Amino acid sequence: MIIGVPKEIKAQENRVGAVPAMVLDLVAAGHTVVVQQGAGHGAGIPDEAFAKVGAKLAADAAQVYGQADMIVKVKEPLPAEYPLIKKGQLLFTYFHFAASRELTDAMLKSGANCFAYETLIHRNSLPLLTPMSEVAGRMAVQVGAVYLEKHNGGRGILIGGVPGVEPATVLILGGGVVGTNAAKMAAGLGADVRLMDVDLDRLRYLSDVMPANVTLLHSSPIAIREQIVHADLVIGAVLVQGARAPRLIRREDLKTMKEGSVVVDVAVDQGGCIETCRPTTHADPTYVVDGVLHYCVANMPGAVPRTSTFALTNATGPWAKKLAGMGAAAAAKDPVLGTAANVLASACTHQGVADAFGLPFRAPGSVL
After folding, report:
1. Which of 96, 253, 294, 350 is catalytic?
2. How far is CA 78 from CA 75, 85, 104, 143, in A?
C-alpha cells in the first residue's frame, strides 16, 4: 500500500502524522511511504530524516493525495483538502466529526474510508487519544496560569500563591486523562484544586492517587454552579467518546463567576462543554464573555509539536501499520479498528456521529 503523509495546514499546526521510526517500520512491512516536503519541519524533523529511512518526498499535498491509498495525518482535513481526497482512500487521523456537520458531510460525499484516532477503543481505553489528552491536560494549567496574569486579561493571580496569600482555585470538570493530568499539574503548582466527575468509582480511584490539595466532588448541574463562583480557573475536560461534549456551563452562569477568571475548554474540538465556547487559534487564542476570559484553542498540543508528534506516533504507529496491512476491510475484520471506523463508503458507521446529526447509522460490517 502507498501511504501518504501530508503537511498539516490547520492554523499554527506544526505536528506531523509520522516520524522516521514509524516510516521505517512501514517500509519494512512492504509499504511505500510518501511524505510531503517540509511536513516535519515544525516538529524539528528534516526531510532528509524521512528520506534516509526510505520515504519518498513529494513536492506538494496534491502529489501526496494523488499517489496514496492511505493518508496518515494529525488533524481533520480542511476544506482546501476535500477535493484532494479520493473515493475509497483510507484516512487515518483525528476527525472529531460530531463537532462539524460540514466535515461529516464532506467525508460522506467523498466516498473515503475514515478511521478516527479519537474513537479507537482498546482494552476499554482510548489509546490514540490518551497521549494528546495528557499533553492538553498539562497545557491547560500552563496556559491558564499565564492568562490569569493581569496584563493578559486575568485577575492578576499567581496560581500557587505565596506564603500568607491564598493560591488560585482551579476547578476541573471531568476526571479522565485530561482532567487527571490537569489536576496533577495544578496541584504541583500549589493551587487549590477541585475536580468533578459523575463516576463515583473514578473519584474513589483518584482519591488514592491525588495529593491532598485536590478535592474530589461529584458532578451535577447544581454542584457545578456552586463551584464556579469560587473558581479562578475552570478547565473543561469532559469527553463523551465519539459524541458532542455536553454543555456543563451555561451563558447565564458566567455572570456568577469572578471578573477576570479564566476558562480553558479542552473539549472544544468536540464542541466544547461551556456554552460560550468557540474554537480559537494559537495566533488569536482568547476572547472575553461577561468578564470571563475564554481560551478555546482546538489544537492545543500543536503548540508543543515536537513533544506532541513523538507522543502521538508512539501510539498511532502500530495501528497505522495494521490498518495499512488490512485496508478498509479492517473495519469489519478487526474489532478494535472497527471502533475507529466513522465513515465508510459514504455511510456513517459510528453511532455517536450519527446521533449528533440525525444521520442513519450502519454497522461497519454491513457496509463492507
Report:
1. 96
2. 9, 11, 11, 26
